[in-house]
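User: Teach me something about this protein's shape.
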Amino acid sequence: MSQTDGRELAPGDVPASGVDYSFVLASASPARRRVLADAGINPIVQVSGVDEEALTAALIAERGAIAPADLALALAQAKAQDVARHVAEQPRRLVVGCDSVFELDGIAYGKPLTSEVAIERITAMAGRTGLLHTGHWVVLDGREVGRTATTTVEFAPMRTAEIAAYVATGEPLQVAGSFTLDGRAAPYVRRIIGDPSNVLGISLPTMRDLVETLGVPWPALWGAATGAATG
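Assistant: First, the predicted structure itself:
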């Protein structure tokens, strides 16, 4: 699997260009949909059935330990492959799986899910710098390619009352690292080094590289048709 150096995985053969493609996003993330929409892509959304916590536990049991960047990529791969199985007979369906993991002190943080966990994590993150890893996995007509993109995120110090107020909004409970760049947490993000769209859940430069590795020119995805992706 690719580490943070952006090394591509199994690029496969290059298909012919100049044909119509549809973009299937294996994620329910509103932020990812907005990023794609702003870039001119209207994805078909088909959420995968992957149990992230169970898969993470299985990977740790199998390997003993897994780097946060590799975990993000493994989860993205599982999501893309799960959805791709349902559209296998529909050609030119570009299936994209993404997963984000925040790393602080070498520890991977996914979605906190509860207020107690969110408060604990944000308290640890405040005034410090961490890494936001987003795994990207693309499946097209039986060929696959993937990469992890990493962005450095520096947080401002936060008072206890500010943390409590932010967590009370519910915003951080369902996002990796317990923060968002396009929401109430934005004023507490002092600086990022790297691709901003990666922090929002899908790196557009990374996606462009991956789809072009599969022979799909990026402009071919502009205005990609929407519709049901089940098959």
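Now, about its shape. The longest strand covers residues 143-155. The radius of gyration is 18 Å. If you'd like, I can walk through any region in more detail.
User: That's plenty for now, thanks!
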